[in-house]
Structures are given as structure tokens and as C-alpha cells.
Amino acid sequence: MRLTSLKFISEKREKDFAKLNIHTAEELIKHFPRAYLDLTRPTQLADAYHNDVVLTVCEVLNVEMNRYSKRPVVKALCQQGGIIFEAVWFNQPYVASKLLPGEYLFYGRVQNKYGYGCRIVNPSFERAEEAARLKGIIPVYPLAGSLTQGVVRAAVKDALSKAVCHSLIPQPLCEKYGLIPLERAYAMVHSPQSEKDIKAGSDRIAVEEYFLLISAFKVIKGGRDDARVNRYCVTGEDVRAFISRFPFPFTEGQKNAVNEIFANLHSPHTMNRLLQGDVGSGKTAVALTGIYMAVKSGYQAAMIAPTEVLARQNAALAERYFPDFKVRTLTGSTPAAEKRKIKEELASGGADIVCGTHAVLTEDVAFKALALAVCDEQHRFGVAQRSSLTGKGFGCDVLVMSATPIPRTLSLIFYGDLDVTTIKDKPRSRQEITTAVISEKKYGAMLRYVEERAAAGEQTYFVCPKIEGDEEGTVMSVTELFGELKEKMPGVRIALLHGKMRDRQKNEIMAAFKNGEYDCLVSTTVVEVGIDVPAATTMIIYNAERFGLSQLHQLRGRVGRGEKKSYCFLLLGADTEETRERMAVMKNSSDGFEIAEADLKIRGGGDFLGTRQSGRVLSELKNLRYDVSAVFTAKAVSDEAFSGGFDAGLLTRVAIAKYESLKDVVLN
To answer: Within the chain, how many helices (H) and strands (E) appear?
Structure first.
């Protein structure tokens, strides 16, 4: 149903909704509130702390806009109970025409330090007389263009009465598991009468979406013939001899992983194994041992990585440990003539091992006898991409690796078809990393420390959550930070890296940093899946509260790979009770699986398995705060739906449709 069929939605407003990727009434009801206003509990600014998000009534005295800055800034001079303060909107020029002198209800983040007194940043606002007509708990939606909260609320209310949102969970199962009607759940989220309504509605919607996702996985993974085709002749003595080539003894975790892979490859069934281990736990050494089992048995092996630098790093290791076998590197930047030669060698059997990127997945890459496919940092590859690689062999064995710890309960849901191997211990040579939260007062001292480390030949990562466009005025962007650091540390060689750069440029910068041509790398999370830089001893993360704990731990693992003492410094943009609890976990634990379980417990499934980590897969759940128990309920419902004689045809069609939408999506 087109949006223009709803009340108050003109073609102009339809275009504004399109900026939010909303084109139909069905999509509109999935545009969930980013926050709620509890009109029964307004706050006085005198009682607010720095970074509190408050609902408050104030008087706007005058409004002005600076049109000559890089980004338009609207400022309003306001007062409340004798306190004069400023309200500021970044990159929202339309506010200047909508905000007039008078009494308003503001909802936004308070800042009362950094030298500019008290101010509220990017608050939502309503005229007091209009807000007086609102009662109870009011939704606050993400906006775009000329849309206002009133327009979106009215449109959502109309859409709820017209959009079709029938549940695909069989009715007997809805009754058995006490699932409220889906239409009611959407109404509870958009028009809640209490906090309980918000939670109950969010949980029900999450159950529906995870039910479809888990059912899709069942169809994708079902019906696979896993009878062994390739026969491995490598012996235990051969494997022990290969392991002795490494300059370090394998940990018990690594030995167990090797034994499980060895048993897999000699079993009657094809291997489909997830190898997960903390950062620095030695997964690559285990994977190389698995590759040895394949090539020693006369087969070929392929190892793909998400970045060219990581692929070349893997290739360098393979060349070191496989002197008797032909190793080739195939990436997007490989010269055309060399590509043709490598493809000919793979097709004829002249090359035994290929390490590469997505370039290995192209249709014109064929193998003579591919038996083992290894995906490094598997969460960066979609289902179809992994299938494309294994499809180049016959009865191909699969080993996927992940350094992002997944709580065991969730791995059973999303990797139920995989044998899971977990390496919990770390190599003895691995450095412990000291983690600390840096206050504003110590920021200058931290930069002086970075300068000292640079002079000593050590390197530093600076990581920001955004590339540019600080929408709230509280988040440091990578481009802004790069400029600031260049000014504050003129004697330090600093490079900038982010996801919008061309692949060739990114590879060149990462390689230059690894080679010591830069002292500092200012980056977004593209370094999360990074290269081994032994000279990097300091990781500095801005707005750390905006990252999941597992991602913070992954970033922290970029340092501590050499002999020097390493540190991770966390800078906060918001200091809430939950943030303090989460940062305490980071400071006190170095166990990635313990950290993942803690993050799951503190923030629930909405953040751990949210859209940031699962691409478009769970985009329908954006902004919902649901409990992880909803995921387990969805798993139980899906299991029973597929095994209990319900309409499997419908479930299969829905799941296949879902799979089609996952083809190019990064799955976690």
C-alpha cells in the first residue's frame, strides 16, 4: 500500500519518507520509535547531569542559524526557572523555520561541560500547547527532510489501521507459546500505555522476525547430502611433523581443534565446521594444519579473506609453511596476465593452494580437485558467497573461522548445522592488554603518551564510530579526528582510513601502516578485521559506548601482538549506569567469550544480534529493545513448525524468499 493512501501523506512527504527507506504502509509500521517521552515525568535542567537525556519544558527566547559553517547549525537561546541555556541542532536547517519564540517541550541530551555551559543537543520539540494534548508515553521517531513528529505519528496511526501484518507462525503454535496477535504487538510498540507494553510488543515482533530467519536457515541448510566424497590419506604422524614447523608449541585448545578436524576429514561425512577463538588464539595455525591435511592427500585448498591485506598475509604464511607446494595469491588487484596464469594453474592442478579475496569466487575460477575451503573471518561473507566457493569442488569440506565470540546458546541457534570448535586458551607469547577509560582531563596526557610511543617506534590505532556527519554533536567522526590529531601532534605521521575509500587506497594505507610508514592510523571499524602489526601497542577507541563489547574486544585485539606492553584506551561520549557496567567488563576481562555472554546479559539480543552486526537481515528490528529470550522462543517455534506437520510449504516459500534477500548480506 502506497504511503500516499494514508492521511496527511502528500507526494512531497512520500519523498521524505523514502529518505528513511520507507515506501509502503507495511514498511512504515516497522519504523519503530528511537525513544519515548514519558510526559508524566518531566525534568528540570538544574537536576540534570552531563549526557543525561531529558524531557523538559522551557521558553525559547530567540533563534538563529549559522549558514556559513561546513554544516548548518541552528541555535536557540532558552530559559527555564532563571537558567539561561542554549539548544543546538546540527545539520537540521529546517528547525530555524519551525521554532518560534514561546514555550516548548524539549527532549534531548544535556551537555554541561566542555566549556560552553549548559546546552541541549538536537532535541525533539513540540509547542507546549500542542504537547498538552498528548498524554502518557509518546513515541519519538527518526526523521528526515521536512517530516515532523506529529506527521509521522499520525501516519503510523493510520498505517496501523490499514497495513496487513498477519503472523506466519501457525495459530496453534501462537496459542501454545502465548504469542499475542502481531497487529496488537505493533500497536503496543507505537502507542504504549506502559513500559510493559513496549517490552511485550517488542518481544513479540522479534519472535516473528527470528522465526522467519531461523526457518530460512533451516531451508538453506536442509537437504544437503553430506556423505564423504574426498578420501584423505594423511596420517597422525604426518600432522605432528607439520605442526613441528611452527616456532611455538600448540596450546591444548589448538591441539583439540586439530584433532577434531582430523577426525572430521576421516569420517563418513563431509566436514562443515566453525572454528571460533578469541583474538590471537591461533586459529590461523589450526587452519593451515587443516590445509596441510588436504594438500598432503593430493587435493587442493582455498583460503579466502575479506581484505586483500589479510589475504596476502595468509599467503605469506602459507608460502612459509608449505615450501613443497605451490601457493598462489588471487585478489582484485592481481594483474590481468598473472590472474590468467593462476586460473590456469588452479584448473590444471598446477597450483595446490590459493589464498585470496572475493576474486576467488568469480565464475571463471575453477579447480581440478578442490577439497577444502577455508573462510577467514567468516562473518564478512554471505551464505551464497561461501556456497560459491564450496561449489567449485565436489563434496568440499568447509572450515569457517570467527574471532567474534558468539555466546554458546546463540551459536546453537544460528550455527546449529555446524560442528563448533572453540579455542579458549591463547598462545603463551600473547601479551595481556591493559584497558582503561580515559577522562576528559587526561586526554592531553594520552596524546603526549602517543607521541612518546611514536618516537620509540611504536604505533597507535585511533578508532571512531563514524566517517563524517556528527548528527548529535556528541560523536567524534574519523575525518574530524584526523584533522584534530594532525594539528595537535604535528611531528607524528598519521594516516586516515575508512570504508568509503577505494579498495586499492585502503590496501595501500594498511600495508604502509604495517610496514611502519605511519605512526598512527585513524580509522573506522574497518580495522576490526585487520592485519598483524607487531609494532602497534596502543588502541584508542572514541565513543566506546556505541560499540558492542565483542566488537570492542575485537578492536582491542589489534594490539598486543608483539613483545612490547600494550594498552587500550576507551573514551566515552555518554556516561550512563549501563555504560559504566559494560566498560567495567572490558577493563576486568580479557576472555572474549566471557565478554560476549556479559554483553548479551546486559544489552539483550536487540543489540548483540541487531542490524549493525547482521546487515539487512534484521533491519525490521531496528530500534527495538527486545529480550534475548525472544530468540530462543523463535527457535522453539520454528523447530516445532517444521517437525509438527504444519504447512511446511508455506514456511519453505517464506524461508526461500528470505534467503533471496540474504544472498549478498553479511551474516553473523
So the answer is: 25, 20
Q: Report residue 581 as a C-alpha cell.
A: 557496567
pTM above 0.70, yes or no: no
DSSP strands (E only) in 415-562: 419-423, 433-437, 459-463, 494-497, 520-523, 536-541
The CATH number of 236-423, from 2.30.39.10, 3.30.470.20, 3.40.50.300, 3.40.50.1110, is 3.40.50.300
Residue 106 CB: number of other CB atoms within 10 A? 24
Q: Which residues contact 116 (CB under 8 A, 6 or more apart)?
A: 86
- Residue 318 makes CB contacts below 8 A (sequence gap 6+) with 288, 291, 303, 327, 353, 355
pLDDT tens for each residue of 314-344: 999 999 999 999 999 999 889 999 999 999 9
Q: Specify which of 106-115, 161-170, 244-253, 627-636 reaches the highest per-range mean pLDDT.
A: 244-253
Q: Where in the chain is the domain with CATH 3.40.50.300?
A: 236-423, 433-589
CATH 3.40.50.300 fits 433-589, yes or no: yes
Say yes or no to pLDDT of 411 above 70. Answer: no
Q: Tell me the average pLDDT of the chain.
A: 84
CATH 1.10.10.10 fits 41-135, yes or no: no
Strand 459-463 and strand 83-90: the pairing is unpaired
